[in-house]
Amino acid sequence: MVDERPNGSKTSRQVIDDICDDCPRYCTLREVLCIAGIMNDRTFEQFKCIDIFKYEQSAKEERDIGWEEAARRWVDRGYAAKFARVYVAGIKAREIYDAVMERTVTLKLP
After folding, report:
1. pLDDT in tens, 92-102
2. What is the pLDDT confidence band of residue 88, given thresholds at 50, 70 and 90?
């Protein structure tokens, strides 16, 4: 399902549901993403991958590294470039993330 936005951009409800799958029953992020509709699915998926990366790095370092640091490391370590190579529309963010991190994964087209 694709939602039409007044500015002509499109946001897939399925992508937003994937990104917010860890959220509690009410998710502020989901509401903002649905209302704003200013980014494409690829950008949403990459944000989710950076969020997973931030969580893993923060746990490893036993401190919150923050969004800016996570995004900087994501780019500096070449993960953004890997994301661009492995991204396939319709694949869940966790599968894309595992492919970026070169974990054993086979991406299956939807």
Report:
1. 888 999 999 98
2. confident
Distance CA 30, CA 96 (A): 20
Which residue in this structure is represented by tokens 């944000």? 47
Own/partner contacts of 96-105, CB < 8 Å, gap of 24 or more, are 96/45, 96/49, 97/48, 97/49, 97/52, 97/53, 100/49
Say if CB 51 and CB 81 are below 8 A apart.
no
Burial status of residue 16 (CB atoms within 10 A of its CB: 0-12, 13-18, 19 or more): buried
Residue 107 lies in a domain: no
Residue 7 has pLDDT above 50, yes or no: no
First CA to last CA distance, the chain: 14
Is residue 109 a part of any domain in this protein? Answer: no
Q: Does the predicted TM-score (pTM) go above 0.85?
A: no
The secondary structure element, H or E, covering residue 43 is helix 41-61
Q: Is 109 exposed, middle or buried (CB count within 10 Å of its CB: 0-12, 13-18, 19+)?
A: exposed
Structurally, the chain folds into a number of domains equal to: 1
